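Recall the central idea of this unit: under ordinary conditions, the amino acid sequence of a chain determines the structure it adopts. In this exercise we apply that idea directly, starting from the sequence alone.
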Amino acid sequence: MRVVRRVLKAGAPGVARTGRAVRVLAACLPGVLAVVSLALCARGVERAVLPAPGRAAAARPPVAHQAARPRIVPRSAWLDRTTGQSQPPPRYDDKVVAVFLHHTDSPNGYRCAEAPRIIRHLYAGQTGARGWDDIGYNFLVDRCGTIYEGRAGGVDRAVTGAHAQGFNHRTAGIAALGTFTAGVPVPRAMTDAIAALAAWKLGLADVDPRGRARLVSSSGLSRYKAGTAATLPVLSGHQAGYRTDCPGAALAARLPAIRERAALLQGRTLSPVRPATGKPPGPGKPTATGKPTATGKPAAEGKPSAGGKPSAEGKPSAEGKPKPSATGKPSAT
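Accordingly, the structure predicted from this sequence is:
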């Protein structure tokens, strides 16, 4: 027994050190286990977050049909201090659901560097002799395909224009610089720019350029009585809503191709919507209500008012002047 006690006493320091090591290890074990548990938990969460390959596409929201914004030259490039004048704040709609195409009924033989001067002249005529508060068109495009900002308020916003009597709300007006009556060549650069601009502007509200839009007339001087709902091509010529030859027969003939080009720029497939011509039904053909018309003029919903007489582009009749704004200067209706 004495030998055993002596051995134990002789080994006591080693045993003590081993005991302390065990106690230290035991104290550290919960922390080590916590780190290991945390790593395993994180790995499990990572696996849970990663979706199954077949479910990834279904979980994503549908992509809107938007087109790239084309280069747009700001107003400051054509409106100088001597020409510009004070005007009321811009007015806005909730969105743009249709585009009206115009021509400016001005000479075609200009150099593209002269476009700012031509736009400035148009602005001076509309705000001077006619007393409008700003240029009526939202955008203007020259023969080289350069796009200019027209009416003030922001190119990416739904600015209420003064370009289509009765249909200025929820629409944008694009004017082609020149006169494009029957037989006049229409530059390809111009129509490509118009298509790109329409694709971008309509794409902001995911509107197909080949579709049709329901618009409500705000003036009996248009083709439709005030308060009448009209269903028109999304991308229309001015003559679709007003008794005029604008945008000219040559440019109007390019509308179907412009619509298709704009739709492709939005990433849409070919012709999911039948391109509309904007023409009223022919004699004896049924309208949307099922009733035939005698003369081919729009019936019921599309009945034109009796007072709207044809006029040259940019020359409204006396009754067609815009309503006065808060500043006393006429504005769009």
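The longest strand covers residues 98-103.
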